[in-house]
Amino acid sequence: MASVELNGAAIVDEAAFHAESRRVFGFPETYGDSIDAWVDCMSYLRDEENMTRFRLGENEVLEIVVKDAGKMKAQVPDLLEELAYCVGGINERYEDYGEKPALKLVLR
What we know:
Blueprint: E1 2-7, H1 14-25, H2 35-42, E2 62-67, H3 69-75, H4 77-96, E3 103-107
Parallel strand pairs: 1-2, 2-3
Helix pairs in contact: 3-4
């Protein structure tokens, strides 16, 4: 299983979340620093769009580990909740296309 680690302690606001996401996911330069752009990029993990540095196989899952999730929750609780909501929505999108979920969110 592919895995990536977000540094929850460094995510103090939405701008820091997007900077950390750019760093760990390898989003393209055209990434728009918004939740909608994050969802768009993460929706192409099994396609050849090169929206992230990850290219998942048919049954592969990308594990997103939020290290120091407690600190992130204390600093930006709504953002952590939105992240979980988006992961669920992206997985539903994959299922709507007859594919297995592609993301697993782990809070540490």
